Automatic annotation (TrEMBL):
<dbReference type="Pfam" id="PF02441">
    <property type="entry name" value="Flavoprotein"/>
</dbReference>
<feature type="binding site">
    <location>
        <begin position="103"/>
        <end position="106"/>
    </location>
    <ligand>
        <name>FMN</name>
    </ligand>
</feature>
<comment type="function">
    <text>Flavin prenyltransferase that catalyzes the synthesis of the prenylated FMN cofactor (prenyl-FMN) for 4-hydroxy-3-polyprenylbenzoic acid decarboxylase UbiD. The prenyltransferase is metal-independent and links a dimethylallyl moiety from dimethylallyl monophosphate (DMAP) to the flavin N5 and C6 atoms of FMN.</text>
</comment>
<comment type="similarity">
    <text>Belongs to the UbiX/PAD1 family.</text>
</comment>
<feature type="binding site">
    <location>
        <position position="168"/>
    </location>
    <ligand>
        <name>dimethylallyl phosphate</name>
    </ligand>
</feature>
<feature type="binding site">
    <location>
        <position position="184"/>
    </location>
    <ligand>
        <name>dimethylallyl phosphate</name>
    </ligand>
</feature>
<protein>
    <recommendedName>
        <fullName>Flavin prenyltransferase UbiX</fullName>
        <ecNumber>2.5.1.129</ecNumber>
    </recommendedName>
</protein>
<feature type="binding site">
    <location>
        <position position="138"/>
    </location>
    <ligand>
        <name>FMN</name>
    </ligand>
</feature>
<dbReference type="InterPro" id="IPR003382">
    <property type="entry name" value="Flavoprotein"/>
</dbReference>
<dbReference type="GO" id="GO:0106141">
    <property type="term" value="F:flavin prenyltransferase activity"/>
</dbReference>
<feature type="domain" description="Flavoprotein">
    <location>
        <begin position="2"/>
        <end position="189"/>
    </location>
</feature>
<feature type="binding site">
    <location>
        <begin position="10"/>
        <end position="12"/>
    </location>
    <ligand>
        <name>FMN</name>
    </ligand>
</feature>
<keyword id="KW-0288">FMN</keyword>
<feature type="binding site">
    <location>
        <position position="36"/>
    </location>
    <ligand>
        <name>FMN</name>
    </ligand>
</feature>
<keyword id="KW-0637">Prenyltransferase</keyword>
<dbReference type="InterPro" id="IPR036551">
    <property type="entry name" value="Flavin_trans-like"/>
</dbReference>
<keyword id="KW-0285">Flavoprotein</keyword>
Amino acid sequence: MKRYIVAITGASGSIYGCRMLQVLKEAGCFLYVTVSKPGRQVLKEEMGWVLEGRAEVVEERLREYLGYSSGDPALRYFDPEDLGAVIASGSAQNDGMIVIPCTMSTVSAIAHGTAGNLIERAADVMLKEGRPLVVVPRETPLNQVHLENMLKLARMGVHVVPAMPAFYHHPQTINDLVDFIVGRVLDLLGVEHHLYSRWGE
Ligand SMILES: Cc1cc2nc3c(=O)[nH]c(=O)nc-3n(C[C@H](O)[C@H](O)[C@H](O)COP(=O)(O)O)c2cc1C
């Protein structure tokens, strides 16, 4: 069973993070999830997901939202301030990490190795261990600092997948647009899916 770390930060586009969790669950992947405090604020605002309280409580709420049974170990949630969580260590086994959506603040922290919270530390671990790291930045317009930080990430081997859906697959709904981005991320991780029609197919 593949294991992925999914981090949701406080950028608009929390729907991308929710859909990523759903699709990885359906693909039978084991999930380590963490959500920044601003990420929880945006999830509430945009998706109506209320993730408040202790990590154990948030973990159960996530299981409910995603249709897991109570206590299912296939989804683990860690508080973003918990730097003692398993995903803070390179010894934890996993197949990669996705930060979706990713704020410019977290892009900057990863680019500069700040490792000040669990999301930044887990991403730092991916880099030092040479494991796949995908970030899905969501901001517009982009200033010089944003662009320089994303270039820094790309040069370090991070997959930078801006939340910029295409239109050649004739999307009809918001879900079609979301699935295109989620599908492009899964393509990079080698996770099979049928989320969008590929060009020429
Ligand atoms: C409703 C809302 C939407 C936001 N959208 C974005 C966004 O699209 N991109 C971004 O970089 N920051 C956005 N922010 C600002 C970040 O949440 C803020 O910079 C925060 O400190 C990021 O922290 P984090 O990276 O730990 O989640 C938004 C904030 C709010 C409240």
